[in-house]
From TrEMBL:
It comes from Lysobacter arseniciresistens ZS79. Converts cobyric acid to cobinamide by the addition of aminopropanol on the F carboxylic group. Pathway: Cofactor biosynthesis; adenosylcobalamin biosynthesis. It holds the Pfam family CobD_Cbib. This is Cobalamin biosynthesis protein CobD. The keyword Transmembrane applies. One of its GO terms (molecular function) is threonine-phosphate decarboxylase activity. One of its GO terms (cellular component) is plasma membrane.
Length: 312
């Protein structure tokens, strides 16, 4: 039933998006803040303990809830899974954040574009010109296609409700603790490494979907030649394949915390602009549809192979 639940979750996200108030991750953020204040030490083991206290009880609770729901009715369990997955994915949110940047660039309003992209990225957006603003937005769309959409789908299909809860909480903790600054270099080590591990396969499946749904030769060529040079083992394949798929140049120098950092170049083709942002959004959408079709194809094939034993 996970193919059906995943499809319903994507439809719910498309119709309603993320809750404006009362999102569970807001409560989780408060919980992790409380845990950090009590367990923080400049040591890796402290980070491991804090991560475990924040995530493992909620994953165990999710597993118990799914078990009891499944025992009562598989349909109730599927509906619950669809609801939680809809809260975990952010496909509609990508468009709600990125489309205003493209619209502002098309209108020639760089200040508005910078203000909009500041809600998506951590770099110093006031220092960006129009091309750099478009590149930052395009990069964010491509990378968050994995983090906000495909990673959650992957772990839901693989492990059900506890899988998607594990992935989303781990990804959230990476965003909170996974920095390489003085405070989190050791304490956030576990959060960063666990998130890397959970994204290892989803990132490469995302890159493959980008390649198949865009300019395939260019995407594969950029993936193979450029991904290994990127500092993140998972963002590299996703962004290189995505940039190659839509024919745009990304990467390069970017401002962070008052200084410009040199980054490898990704992709091939023309410079980023409003068009590349809209192409990236379409690529994520097309890749999502491809994932759902592949999931249904596998579910139907398994039903035929084991009549009555499995359900879509």
């Amino acid at each position: 039933m996970r193919a059906g639940a995943a499809t319903v979750a994507v439809a719910l996200d498309a119709m309603f998006g993320e809750p404006r108030r009362g999102h569970p991750l807001v409560g989780f953020g408060r919980l992790t803040g409380w845990i950090e204040r009590r367990l923080y030490r400049d040591h890796r083991l402290a980070g491991v303990l804090a991560w475990s206290c924040a995530v493992l009880p909620l994953v165990a609770l999710a597993a118990a809830v799914e078990w009891f729901a499944q025992a009562g009715s598989p349909w109730v369990a599927a509906a619950l899974g669809a609801l939680v997955l809809a809260l975990a994915i952010g496909h509609r949110s990508l468009g709600e954040h990125a489309a205003p940047v493209a619209a502002a660039l098309e209108a020639g309003d760089l200040d508005a574009a910078r203000g909009a992209v500041a809600r998506m990225v951590s770099r110093d957006t006031v220092a960006l010109d129009a091309t750099q603003t478009a590149a930052a937005t395009t990069e964010s769309v491509l990378e968050n296609g994995c983090d906000a959409v495909f990673g959650a789908l992957f772990w839901f299909v693989l492990l059900g409700l506890p899988g998607v809860v594990l992935y989303r909480l781990a990804n959230t903790l990476d965003a909170m603790w996974g920095y390489r600054d003085a405070r989190y270099r050791r304490f956030g080590w576990a959060a960063a490494r666990i998130d890397d591990g959970l994204n290892l396969l989803p990132a490469r499946l995302t890159a493959l979907a980008y390649a198949l749904c865009g300019h395939t030769p260019g995407a594969l060529r950029c993936w193979l030649a450029q991904a290994r040079h990127w500092k993140s083992p998972n963002a590299g394949p996703v962004m290189a394949a995505g940039a190659g798929a839509i024919g745009v140049r990304l990467g390069g120098a970017a401002p962070y915390h008052g200084r410009w950092l040199t980054r490898p170049e990704l992709g091939a083709g023309g410079p980023a602009g409003a068009v590349s942002i809209r192409r990236a959004l379409r690529l994520v959408r097309d890749a999502l549809l491809a994932w759902l079709l592949a999931l249904w194809a596998v579910a139907i094939a398994l039903n035929w192979a084991v009549p009555g034993g499995l359900h879509a």
